[in-house]
Design goal:
266 residues, Endonuclease Iii, domain 2, elongated
């Protein structure tokens, strides 16, 4: 009797064919080419390069007259009780907000409000008390060292010269200027990110770095306004002339500002 032919091989062959078809990559349309992004430099960046027209002497004087009228006695927003705690607070505020520093310093200053007490407190304890602040390890080390140096070289007093202040651990030109101005009434200009932006954006004192802006501000700010000038500019930059979206609609010097990117017509 003849054997019946098996159909299984045929099924297996069909499966292989189907598998081969499935394995073949399907034809895909090439993605559309991206359009080249136009080389447009933001107006804010142009202003940072000094592209804003310069403010006139009369405009600068009027700007500070208005800022002074709006806030006759401006001061730092850092919490402090004496020149030493101010110095420590400013050192801690580097790359941190004043609000964040003010949350950490009450407990620190309750234990150590003088260089001698801070030196005795020690780096480890300081670090534990300020660990909510950015870069707290480095800052704790600097605060401990500067306290020791104040005790050893300055009789436990905060020096009143920029050179002596800048020789302290963690103290740069901006910190020294803040202490000289706020604690001792010197007519110094502490150029932070806000003042650097304002100097360039408004056309008041354009510069490629903070020192250039500081030098130009010292030249153009009328003498009667120099005592509080850096606080007026910091506060204006912090709450009105914001980096990304300046509130030109509520700016009291908008008509004097030379920035071509103002958000409202002044």
């Amino acid at each position: 009797m003849a054997k019946k032919l098996s159909k299984k091989p045929a099924k297996k062959s069909a499966r292989k064919t189907a598998a081969k078809i499935a394995a073949k990559p399907t034809a895909r349309k090439a993605p559309p080419k991206e359009k080249p992004v136009p080389n447009r430099k933001p107006v804010a960046a142009k202003a940072a390069d000094g592209a804003s027209p310069l403010m006139t002497t009369a405009q600068i004087k009027e700007a500070f007259r208005r800022l002074a009228a709006a806030n006759p006695e401006p001061t730092t927003e850092l919490t402090y009780t004496n020149p030493f705690t101010l110095l420590v607070a400013v050192v801690l505020s580097a790359q941190a907000t004043d609000a964040g520093v003010n949350k950490a310093t009450p407990a620190l200053f309750a234990l150590a409000d003088t260089p001698a007490k801070m030196a005795a407190l020690g780096e480890d304890r300081i670090r534990d008390l300020i660990k909510t602040i950015g870069l707290f390890r480095t800052k704790a080390k600097n605060v401990a060292l500067l306290a020791q140096k104040l005790v050893a070289e300055h009789g436990g007093e905060v020096p009143r010269t920029r050179e002596a202040l800048e020789a302290l651990p963690g103290v740069g030109r901006k910190t020294a200027n803040v202490v000289l101005n706020t604690a001792f009434g010197e007519h110094t200009i502490a150029v932070d990110t806000h003042i650097f932006r304002l100097g360039n954006r408004t056309g008041m004192a354009p510069g490629k770095n903070p020192l250039e802006v500081e030098t130009k501000l010292e030249q153009v700010i009328p003498p009667e306004f120099k005592r509080h000038a850096h606080h007026w500019l910091i506060l204006h930059g912090r709450y009105t002339c914001l980096a990304r979206k300046p509130l030109c609609e509520r700016c009291i010097i908008a008509d004097l500002c030379q920035w071509p990117g103002k958000t409202v017509a002044a």
